[in-house]
Structure formats: structure tokens, C-alpha cells
Amino acid sequence: GQNIDQPTEMTATEGAIVQINCTYQTSGFNGLFWYQQHAGEAPTFLSYNVLDGLEEKGRFSSFLSRSKGYSYLLLKELQMKDSASYLCAVIPRSGAGSYQLTFGKGTKLSVIP
Amino acid sequence: DAGVIQSPRHEVTEMGQEVTLRCKPISGHDYLFWYRQTMMRGLELLIYFNNNVPIDDSGMPEDRFSAKMPNASFSTLKIQPSEPRDSAVYFCASRLDGGWPQHFGDGTRLSIL
Cβ of B59: how many Cβ atoms within 10 Å? Predict the structure, then answer.
């Protein structure tokens, strides 16, 4: 089966840096996504990692270590609007199953003044 | 650009009634996905289509659920008869063959009384 773990909730202060971790155990690996989901809205794409290392996109960065089955999303200079759930999702394997994402349950981030 | 369009946005109905959720994918996208999101289970894949053909329906919870894609621009998810435990937010998503990420619709918030 597929197993993706994230912390359920986190709280951080406006202007600070927060790191949201994701560990996965899946039958193969073909890439990892991070999505942001504000309450009552659709998930929106943030980042995609397929090779080890850090991908930076403005205030957001995502890191992947395939050997450790580990990723994190780093949010810098936190703003109140960053309060949302952050979903980690994995493409489990190549072949017929490589066309669907398996999602973690998400980490609800609360940014406080 | 028009994104993935879902209707209705909200549905409240009594148990035993038939429920039909509708989705229009982004024009030109080859893959269409139906997800269900609950607090307990997170975002779960129910079924996905490639070029209008159902590829994997192993996530459909039981025979009360059915999905169709009669053409490239329209899909339905039907629940008959509906039960209170079907209450959830149902998302539709689409993407291009060989292209990531998936793009989500705004979802249908379904409440079965």
C-alpha cells in the first residue's frame, strides 16, 4: 500500500520561516508534489520534485531525498494569507499506475500575528 | 483560461436520493480524475479516465457509486442511493497526457441528511 505522513497541524508567526515535512512509503516513486488548499477552496499546485535536491520558487522551496523517502516544504517570510492546508502527493510507480497521485492528509498551517 | 468547472457547488439532499455531480475538464486535457475529500480520510482518488475511458475505478467505495465520461468535455459522478456517510467534498481534476500538474475544480460540497 501507499503511506504518506505529514504533521496534522502547525502554527507559525507572521514573518517567520516554517518547514512542513512529508515522509512517504510507496510502491515505487515517480515524483512528489506540494499543493496548497485554502479552506473551502480547491487544491492549487505549488511545487514538483522528481530529483533529489531543493527547488526554489519565490518564498516557497521544496526539498526531496528519494533515498530517505522524505520531502519538506519551506515557507519564508510568512504572511497571514499563507494560512492554509498543505498537501504532499506522490506519483507511486511507473507503468499503468504512474498517472495518478496519492495524497497525504495535509498539514493545516496557522499563521499568527 | 477556463479551469475545471464543477456543478453544483453545493448539494444538500436526503438519504436515498440520487445525486449527480458534473465536471467539465480543461479543454484538451486527456486525463480526468474524481476525488473525495473528508477530514478523516483526506483526499482520496475514486476513479480516473484517459481519453474518456475509465482506467482505474478501484477507489470507488461501492456499487452505489458510478462515473461516466460520454465525451471529452463532460463527466458525471452518480451516487444512488445516497447515504449520510457520502457527505464530503468531491473534486474533479484534469491534466494533459505527459503533463503535470493536475488542475482541480472548485469542488462540490455534498451533504446527505
Answer: 16
- DSSP assigned state of A16: S
Q: Which of B33, B56, B100 sits opposite A48 (nearest CB)?
A: B100
Residues whose CB is less than 8 angstroms from the CB of residue B41 and which lie 6 or more positions away in sequence, other chains included: A105
Helix (H) or strand (E) segment spanning residue A75: strand A70-75
Q: Is B47 helix (H, G, I), strand (E, B) or coil?
A: strand
- Per residue of chain A (113 residues), what is the pLDDT tens digit? 678 999 999 999 999 999 999 999 987 888 999 999 999 999 999 999 999 999 999 999 999 999 999 999 999 999 999 999 999 999 877 555 566 788 999 999 999 99
CB A53 within 8 A of CB A68: no
Strands B5-7 and B88-95: unpaired
Per the CB < 8 Å rule, is A33 touching B56? no
Round to whole Å and give the CA distance between A74 and A71: 10
